[in-house]
Design brief:
The complex is a heterodimer of chains A (368) and B (143). Chain A is of the alpha/beta class. Chain A has helices at 17-30, 56-62, 74-81, 96-107, 129-135, 146-149, 187-195, 202-233, 238-245, 254-258, 278-288, 297-308, 317-321, 328-342, and strands at 6-11, 36-44, 47-53, 90-94, 116-121, 164-167, 176-181, 199-200. In chain A, a hairpin with an 8-residue loop joins strand 6 (164-167) and strand 7. The two termini of chain A are 32 Å apart. Chain B is globular, with a radius of gyration of 15 Å. In chain B, helix 1 packs across helix 4 (115-132). In chain B, 55% of the residues are buried. Chain B has a 4-stranded parallel sheet with strand order 2-1-3-4, with helices on both faces. Classes of the chains: A alpha/beta (368), B alpha/beta (143). The A-B interface holds A 234, 236-244, 247, 268, 284, 287-292, 296-299, 302-303, 305-307, 309-310, 334-335, 338-339, 342-343, 356-357, 360-362, 364-365, 368 and B 50-52, 55-56, 58-61, 72-73, 79, 82-83, 85-91, 93-94, 96-100, 106-108, 135-143.
Chain lengths: 368, 143
């Protein structure tokens, strides 16, 4: 699925790329391409948060498009803003894993893509929120999160949305950013952007592609190595192995909240299904001699693996959210590779790929 | 006379109202003998069996879980059994990846007229589970 993009060069001068890109995004808002723009900002030192801006000046002066921090997976933020038919077009600057999660939410009918202008941006990795804040402004030397070190998608997918992708990987020496417009982008928007008078950048696009290919190969090796190590963490496997791995779980559900694709408004684990009466609890405890309380923490994680691993975009926010440092990312990475592999499903790639649970083939998966 | 009482597996069975449950009924009406190890739960469709129900049974110590649905093309709700097949395939991958193994979870298409097949399936499953031995989850309290 190669897509021919319309590549334009945004020159970066003295001002630096942060303000230049912010100005470009502000311009889109000013020119009425979008009615609001969602961008990362820094309202307090080292604290990154998403801003839905109506005022272009806010974007121009305060957007932090290159901050190496994911406050939340932006897909959740955007879906919240466009969950119903939006009146007016909303633009959103998102990292690759955020875009991929957003596409899953669109497929799951949790976000409305029609009036959304998705602006993707390359991402070479993010650092842990807390570490970033503590070290700010000397945050440049922090280690990149594990999920980012083995991320196979440092560039936003070309086929997910008809939008704009901002590239910088492989373009260090050109003093520029690359804005690639999807072929399906609204001609009205393309017209407005072309009016801004940027040069064509097809040669730079090729240069970026080459660097990306090398980076992905490197990451691919790191990913395989990481999965091998993850296997060792399961401690022999079986119910006992996985129960040990998840034994510290307090049942706080933070991982579910942080997960961009775990979307149910009412999770079964929040209802009264598992609110047992004392009589039942004593019965359950009697069978095994005792019970871990709060109960059903392992069932909760295993259920999540079944319900959402097909759409897992490997952003690692679940592990970031865990108060007791359970190694959720390697676990979900392994599960997702298997379940997604079963249907050759790549979450967040294209709107044309149906969610595996919404479709079927008559002759498949036999013998059962 | 305590010596070597044979391990009798407990099987939780989710049976579709339109096919397998009626098939089980037919087995009974036809007086076909089969082991009493299964605890049938009637569901409206195999497609309504969330993997969570199966996991819950396994974690609580069931030795096996049988899901029974209509043959392909016969689903009362058109495609519930196809969807169940996908869900259970994903469950199988999860169980295998965690080293729990998918062999305690069976998904079979048994129609309302196949009482004999139902009885045979239960016999086979009981034999298979006897080979596997008791579910190790019975001994893990911290689940």
């Amino acid at each position: 699925m190669t897509v021919i993009m319309n590549n334009l060069v945004i020159p970066v001068g003295e001002e630096g790329r942060t303000r230049v890109l912010s100005a470009f995004l502000a311009k889109l808002l000013e020119l009425g391409v979008v009615d609001a723009m969602i961008v990362p900002t820094m309202p307090a030192p080292g604290v990154i948060t998403y801003l839905l801006a109506k005022d272009a000046e806010l974007v121009r002066s305060q957007a932090e498009p290159f901050a190496p921090v994911m406050p939340i997976n932006g897909a959740s933020a955007v879906a919240g803003a466009v969950s119903k038919k939006p009146q007016g077009r909303i633009g959103a600057l998102l990292k690759p894993c955020e875009i991929r999660a957003l596409l899953e939410l669109v497929k799951l009918k949790q976000a409305e893509a029609d009036n959304l202008l998705v602006i993707g941006i390359d991402c070479i990795g993010t650092v842990a929120r807390g570490e970033y804040k503590d070290a700010y402004p000397a945050s440049n030397t922090l280690p990149v999160r594990e999920a980012c070190r083995v991320c196979l998608n440092p560039n936003p997918p070309d086929t997910a949305f008809d939008g704009i992708n901002i590239g910088y990987i492989g373009l260090d020496d050109c003093g520029c950013l690359l804005a690639s417009l999807s072929p399906g982008l609204d001609p009205g928007i393309v017209g407005v952007i072309e009016e801004l008078g940027f040069d064509k950048g097809d040669a730079l696009a090729k240069q970026r592609e080459a660097t990306l290919a090398a980076l992905k190969e490197e990451r691919g090796d790191a990913y395989e190595e990481f999965l091998r190590e993850a296997e060792a963490e399961l401690d022999g496997g079986g119910v006992e192995g996985i129960a040990k791995m998840l034994a510290a779980c307090t049942g706080c559900r933070n991982c579910r909240v942080a997960c961009p694709v775990c979307y149910c408004r009412e999770c079964i684990f929040d209802g009264d299904v598992f609110e047992y009466e004392t009589r039942q609890i004593l019965g359950r405890a009697g069978k095994k001699g005792g019970l871990k309380i709060p109960q059903e923490t392992l069932l909760y994680h295993l259920t999540r693996m079944n319900h959402m691993s097909l759409s897992c975009v490997a952003c690692g926010m679940c592990e970031e959210a865990c108060p007791v440092d359970i190694r959720l990312f390697p676990l979900f990475a392994r599960i997702a590779r298997r379940t997604q592999g079963l249907f050759q499903y790549v979450p967040g790639r294209s709107q044309e790929d149906s969610l595996p649970f919404t479709t079927f083939r008559e002759d498949e998966l036999e013998p059962r | 006379m305590e010596a070597s009482r044979e391990f009798e597996p407990k099987i939780v069975a989710f049976l579709c109202n339109w096919c397998t449950y009626t098939g089980a009924d037919l087995a009974g009406v036809s007086r076909i003998q089969y082991p009493s190890n299964i605890r049938p739960i009637r569901v409206m469709c195999s497609g309504s069996v969330d993997p969570m129900y199966i996991l819950k049974a396994l974690l609580d110590g069931a030795d096996g879980v049988l899901v029974g649905g209509c043959h392909t093309g016969d689903c009362h709700y058109v495609d519930g059994n196809f969807k169940a097949r996908r869900r259970l395939a994903v469950l199988g991958e999860v169980l295998d990846e965690l080293g729990i193994g998918r062999d305690r979870v069976w998904f079979r298409f048994i129609s309302a007229s196949e009482g004999a097949l139902f009885a045979e399936t239960v016999r086979e499953m009981v034999d298979s589970l006897k080979g596997l031995g008791p579910n190790p989850a019975k001994a893990v309290w911290f689940t």
